[in-house]
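pinned: reference chain
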Amino acid sequence: MDLEWIRKGLSKPGKTQAGLAKAIGRSESVASRILSGEREIKSREIPKIEAYLGDSPNGHAKAMPSGGLPTPEEIAEARKVQEILLKIAGVPQDDKSLAASLEIVRRVKAGS
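pinned: its structure tokens
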């Protein structure tokens, strides 16, 4: 994942790594591991990071599926796709497979 949008946000006055950690409900060491690339950002943490930084990862496709934050309906549909992928292919139910499932939902809806 491209972390530049977070680093840029943390360079703003009053924004700190400790504040980021608090915003996502994690320890400062977890925030440090995220910024060093040792730990991936969970999809549920992205909106919290955006809210804290007052910025989003626009143009950073790896940060979230294309189309921005999902609606509750899209998440429900993506979870169904995720369950199917688990049953037929053994794909683990994690944040990566949820993001991929969301991308599938959006492409099917778009007709591509």
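why pinned: The radius of gyration is 15 Å. The helical segments are 4-10, 17-24, 28-36, 46-53, 72-89, 95-110.
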